[in-house]
Automatic annotation (TrEMBL):
Keywords: Methyltransferase, Restriction system, S-adenosyl-L-methionine, Transferase
Gene3D superfamilies from the UniProt entry: DNA Methylase, subunit A, domain 2, Vaccinia Virus protein VP39
EC number annotated for this UniProt entry: 2.1.1.37
GO MF annotation list: DNA (cytosine-5-)-methyltransferase activity; DNA binding
Organism whose genome encodes this protein: Crocosphaera watsonii WH 0003
Family membership noted in the UniProt record: Belongs to the class I-like SAM-binding methyltransferase superfamily. C5-methyltransferase family.
The protein, known as: DNA (cytosine-5-)-methyltransferase
A matching Pfam family: DNA_methylase
Length: 213
């Protein structure tokens, strides 16, 4: 999480130092899933320990919007759709006013989604993810819609209760981001280049590759 670089920096430094003491070069980078084909802004801190040349995945040229990911699902009304009640609408309006929101926090299909979490998927909260239909009604995201925004393929099945499924989605590393990271790891493992013990001693501090502001 991004917070490890600020409020909990001491803990992050302790982790990286422990890994470095084991003889690894430590590099870290803040990656956003939206840069890897995921229709969602989701920053995660990635830390890698290696003994050669490791390269983080390159940013994708095309960004996917929530509307492109959801397609026909965005305007469907299923029998189990959960619509916001008038009292919930009032609560959200009050929440957005207090939060100084310049734009309603409904899902905007022409942009990427906000970060999906267990709380804003499974809970009826002021910042819950919801879709506004053409008739003005607003409903919560379905499990399949949330899964698409997290880049899970439609064939992927979630087990357990509805809340459990939302939690699995909200806690996940975006599969597409994980795929590109795995390719970087594979490329490193297939490479024969490794530094000697003497060369490794030159790397005394964790290497920061980038930190978007």
């Amino acid at each position: 999480m991004r917070g490890l670089l600020y409020k909990n920096k001491w803990y992050f430094d302790k982790i990286t130092q422990s890994l470095q003491d084991l003889g690894y070069i430590i590099e870290w980078k803040l990656l956003n899933s939206v840069d890897f084909g995921v229709p969602q802004n989701r920053e995660r801190l990635m830390v890698v320990g290696h003994r050669g040349k490791f390269q983080f995945p390159q940013i994708s040229a095309k960004r996917i919007t929530a509307g492109e990911a959801l397609g026909e699902l965005a305007f469907q009304v299923l029998p189990d759709s959960k619509f916001l009640t008038p009292s919930m609408d009032k609560y959200i309006a009050k929440y957005e006013k207090a939060s100084c929101c310049k734009r309603p926090r409904d899902l905007h299909l022409d942009k990427q989604a906000r970060t999906l979490t267990c709380r804003n998927l499974a809970g009826a909260t002021g910042d819950m993810h919801r879709i506004k239909l053409p008739d003005g009604r607003r409903r919560r995201l379905s499990i399949r819609e949330a899964a698409r925004l997290q880049s899970f393929p439609d064939w992927f099945e979630f087990y357990g209760s509805e809340t459990s499924s939302y939690n699995q989605i909200g806690n996940a590393v975006s599969p597409l981001l994980a795929f590109y990271l795995a390719k970087s790891v594979r490329n490193y493992l297939e490479s024969s280049y490794r530094l000697s013990a003497r060369e490794l001693k030159k790397y005394t501090l964790p290497q920061q590759l980038s930190l978007p502001l």
